[in-house]
Task: structure prediction
Amino acid sequence: MTAQKQHFRLGLFVLVALSICVILAIVFGAGRWIRTTITLESYFNESVQGIDIGSKVKYRGVVVGEVSHIGFTYSRYQQELAPSERQQYVLLEAKLRPELFGGKNIPFPDQAYLNREIEKGLRVKLNPQGLTGTSYLEIDYQATGTPPTPITWQPENLYIPSAHSTVAQLVTATQNLALKLQKLDIEGLINNLNHVLDSANQKMNDMPVQALSKKMLAVLDKLEKIPYAELSTEASGLMHEARVSNQSIQKLLADPAWASMPADLAASTKQARALLENPNLAGSLQKMESSLNRLDQLLAQHEGGLDITMSNMQQISEDLRVISEAARANPTGLLLGQPPKPYVLPSSK
Result:
């Protein structure tokens, strides 16, 4: 009886311990089992090496869920197309906890809200986790110029487009750099550089270094002979004269006559404007033009008579010149008509 009692007590203890463990597991794990989650999917046009089912999903550094499915889009979407025409994107699904985005009483944002955030740059990106080779999904805002992955189907769950990971960007940049380096003609560049260096050496050898050195010494000798002290004195004198001239100009500008000049100019301009705007000016100009026209017609009518008159006046001027010369040679002949008889000296007996 004693052995049976011991076995019974041991079995009872084991059952009680198991019951307590089950109760504790239910108490501590019930929250996880009955927790509400939503499914978010995204598509990646790159390798998702380092992502496994259960990998963390973070929103701006805070863990909000985990990866629940990894596959390809062509196994779910574009079934009506031929396999060769389907997109080769990697499909990632994640289970997210909506209470982390706004609390238990606020539901997870719908696709309309996500579309507005996507326009602001919300993207899903692969981020490496340390040096272990594993990665996690990061939901964060990228540059607005990052275009989303093009799709032609309607996602079954909430959808956020992906962005290229930092590693992929580095690999792409490295590949582009390698392609550019392959296209460069390194050997040709080296040959051109050698040719340039040879030409430079040849030019340096052909330069008359000694002659240039002698000329440089001669120039330095001339520079040493320049009377810098006298030049400095003359420069000081010029500065003094400039200062005096400046003071004279300032005194001239301070004259009240200069101050009143704008007013006088404005008054003159006003008077000139009033004169030009006077309606009598136009009439006077018209009368002057009419008079000039009549004078022109009169001159045109008597043009022949004017020519004869001018010819007569020229002839009269010529006659007056002849009379003037005769009067100068024989003044009495102008009055008496005949020149006086020449005086004859009496002869001596």
